[in-house]
Amino acid sequence: MPPAPSSHSPSGPPSMLRATSEVNVPTAFLLTPFSAKAAGDEKPATYRAVQRSVRDACREAGVELRRADSIFRNGVIVDQIREAMADADLVIAVCTGTNANVFYELGMAEAMGHQPILVAPDARHLPFDKAHCRCHMYGGKRLTTRNLRGRLVKAIAETLADKTR
Description:
Rossmann fold; 5 helices
């Protein structure tokens, strides 16, 4: 019978190994409306599909996804968002409904040097100063929520690769 697994390895206990390995996991910060209503009254099923596509794309790309509503410590919310974006390896912005908070945070992210991955149902959701940027649309016949995840996986991988150049 093989020996029982040890709770310690030569490198230290498992909890230390987890903490060490997590340091190398790239992170994405998501700028997004927090409800279908805040996303310009988008259909709830579409809103959920977009959120799921972003979450699943990050998971598939090996990226930890963070959002403003996952920060619980006390403090000034805008400062915490700014700090989380500064620490992130990339930023993804769901521009649906031209949500004022998303675009405010998008401006902060760009001022920090991020080139965010944009997501929207169509070009009508992008103001004139974003209309020239690549955006992963999902509201058409060919570009849909069904193929959004795969496109985002590629965008995440290419954005991270650009950062290492």
